[in-house]
Write a structure and sequence with these properties.
Number of helices: 11
Order of helices and strands: HHHHHHHHHHH
Structural class: mainly alpha
Helix content: over 70%
């Protein structure tokens, strides 16, 4: 750090830790931006992570700071925290990079709820990709939610994917012991 950056660092860290800076100056959004950049560039990832959390607590731009917290947590080898904030950022922004990070981190952390959210997003973006649809259904089954999996398949049984979706619906209904729903799906397929 140079003298000016070190001074801003001391003031910002003091403010972030809850003590009042000696000068009494208000900390601006740009101060957070500058300090975050300085922490990242000097590889003080723990400090950058704390600062990003503090920025979110102060309700600074959530799309900016959620993404920053997710990224720095990932760099700082805190995958559970990174996943939490990548998922939040993905849901709030629809950002493809964030969804890709959720798809990568969730299985590594055995977080089927986050994985399911990312799979549904990916499947909705590629509605003809039946392999993705199968992964969604398998995740619902792992979560013990076959009825939700059936509802998912039924809601997407339209157009070119109607028949394969109904076939999957019927098979899932059979596996979950819902013979009535399976029979109705098979009847729909024959009509």
């Amino acid at each position: 750090f140079d003298g000016q950056t070190a001074s801003a660092h001391v003031q910002l860290v003091a403010t972030a830790s809850g003590t009042k800076p000696e000068s009494g100056a208000a900390v601006e959004n740009s101060d957070f931006d500058l300090a975050f950049q300085a922490f990242v560039e000097s590889k003080q990832l723990g400090e950058a992570e704390k600062l990003a959390q503090k920025a979110l607590e102060r309700h600074l731009d959530p799309l900016v700071w959620t993404r920053r917290l997710a990224q720095v947590a990932q760099w700082n080898n805190h995958p559970a925290l990174a996943l939490k904030y990548w998922l939040q950022f993905a849901q709030d922004s629809g950002n493809d990079e964030a969804w890709a990070n959720v798809l990568k981190l969730a299985p590594q952390l055995d977080n089927d709820q986050a994985y399911l959210a990312a799979l549904i997003h990916a499947s909705d973006r590629s509605p003809r990709d039946l392999a993705l649809r199968d992964k969604v259904v398998a995740t619902y089954e792992r979560l013990g939610q076959p009825q939700a999996g059936m509802a998912y398949l039924k809601s997407r049984a339209k157009g070119a994917t109607r028949q394969p979706s109904l076939e999957r619906y019927a098979a899932l209904a059979e596996r979950s012991g819902d013979d009535k729903a399976a029979m109705q799906a098979y009847r729909s397929l024959m009509s």
